[in-house]
Amino acid sequence: MLPSVFKKQLSASAQDRFVVRKDVFDKCLVLYPSDEWDRQVKILRSRLNLYKREHSRFLREFFKGTAEILLDGNNRMLIPRRLLELIDVDKEVILAGQDGRIEIWNKGLYEKEGISEEDFADQAEKLLGDSLNIPEE
Questions:
Q1: For residue 91, what are the contacts with CB-CB under 8 A and spacing of at least 6?
Q2: Would 137 be classed as within a structural domain?
């Protein structure tokens, strides 16, 4: 079931349509609202050339782990078993919002992931400490 807190943040055009895919880096799935998925595909198309073998192979692999998801009237979604098996889901999952997308994790694996508070602080300083540019509204 998609929690209402996530659904409230979706655009009107993306309320019931999603694409789910295996994450490139982590053992989780990523659920994209349809408008965000369309934006991601546009970025891919702008950077890749189907007439280059390496690009074509990348796209094939990228799209291999995807499925379209529709919410039913009770905000439930049916994620294909083949994708859930990729992240070793047995019963419980964690939904974690991530800037325009939602990660879906095996609960046990999600709880093991992460870094210490000190390592996180060091990483924040390394990545953001020198150039914190806040865009004007």
A1: 107
A2: no
